[in-house]
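Before a colleague's protein record goes any further, I have to sign it off. Would you go through it and say whether the fold makes sense for this chain? Take the sequence as given and treat only the tokens as open to question. The record follows directly below this note.
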Amino acid sequence: GVVRNYLFLQDVEKTVACVPFISQAHIGTAPKPLDLQTAHFLCAVFSNNVPTTQHNKGNGYCQGNFLPLPGEGHHTELEVVGTIPPELEGCYLRNGVNQRYEPQGKMHMFDGDAMLQAFMFAGGKCTSYANSWVRTPRFLANEVAGKDLYCPFGDLTIAGLPVAKKWGLQALKMRAGLIPYLPPTRAQNASTATQLIGGALYACVEVNSPFRVRVDPQTGVVTSGTHNDFGGEIPVFTAHSRTDPSGNVVYFAKGARSEDAQKQNPNRYGEIGPDGALKTCVEFKAGEGAPPAFLHDCFVTTSYAICIDHSLRADPSRMVSTGYFHFDAERNLRLGVFPRGATDAQELEWYDLDMPGFVWHTIGAREAGDLVTCWMPIFETYTSDVPIHLETEPESYLWKIVINTKTKAVEERTKFEAVGVTERCSTNGAYSAEREPRFAYLMLRSADEEMYTGVAKFDIVLEKVLGCISYGKGRFGGEAYFVERPGATEEDDGWLVDIIYDKASDKSELCLWDARALDDEPLARVKAPHRIPYGVHAIFMTPEQLAKQPPL
């Protein structure tokens, strides 16, 4: 067959050849015949004998409520315990993964086909529930083949030669046309979040362009469109953009994975206007050497857009030795501060926090003169297997960081350990930039537990916990998403919404709490027709937003 031998051989002339069997000796670039070890290596590659599924034995992502559903569905007869507030109208939409076919490698929280869970509310009722796959190019290629064709993210959390061989073989197959070619900016399933941009809804994942979807305003069934890179202006996007009160979407996007291991693609800071047109975009680097593993979340104030550079790096050159991901304790956490509307990377200023660490999510930031106060949960260490949401994940705690934009100094670093272990967090999304946030809803995790067992309401002005909600024994959630009450004039006037899994009954329900009362018992519990796997991030679309979605 046609083989690009440089994909998996070192120190040989780059050659393309058509022969019954390829080796260095056959091509004629080797100084001597193959030794047994090299011959074994070649045979393993050509026979695809590079399994990694053995790592799923005892893998927490292959157990319990991480397991996928068998298919899609739409249901209208849903049991409700309690009272749904009559003002709550629209669609609660949560993204997440749901593996369709048998995996061909080690599974991870980030692996699987994207599936959107939609609950529709009107007239004090939950009128519909639907779960729909997001039909990305990767999903469609697998569907045609009737199996999973591509290496999972989980393989990148394993160190060793088999993983490097396996990823090399995948690149070889795509270039030879044996499996459909997926460019790096469209290679992943859009399974992390959803975002409204110019009135259109997109499913999003880090380092891919946004993927267009549309929610049926009546049923909640999701129809898939295509990737939209906005005419090449947004080749990569993010899972965590921020929308300011004027409707501008602010984002930081990590550079797309490069097909050249020696090249680091630039990161991007950008802003998209309410009309869906790109207003500004600046390319920048986050230090020298291996890039940050993720640029997952950010801060937005009236004057600044702020990203986080951290100690967890992604380095292809270490894939065999120590693994693709590694925590570099010699590289400190940094805040990268752009003036809003910046047009040049020279305007970026870095603030070294003088401590190693890693950050998945942020709460928000507030400005007071030259001071900017940023609130976020921080992991002071992390592991190369990226065990997000497993009981083995390191502990993270809430931190307050104050920077002085005049003196260019970090003035305060305060750890709020008494709050407890916390990571995912929610705020009223209408409060950002000039409408500065005050209240945060912090997910709480008990020792040796997967996912989250409750939520704490934290006041970042008074710097204290105002109250907590416990999900109950053996009950776990993922994100207490805040939905503002229509016509509300106070930031915390609304509801918290989460999909709760009950381990004893192996069932799920969508629960609603009053964000002010903070009672353990929900206002309403919508019984799902089946277990709903743990997911990622949600949004709530109003009837007006649903109606204004443009056609695909």
Summary: The first strand starts at residue 2 and ends at 4.
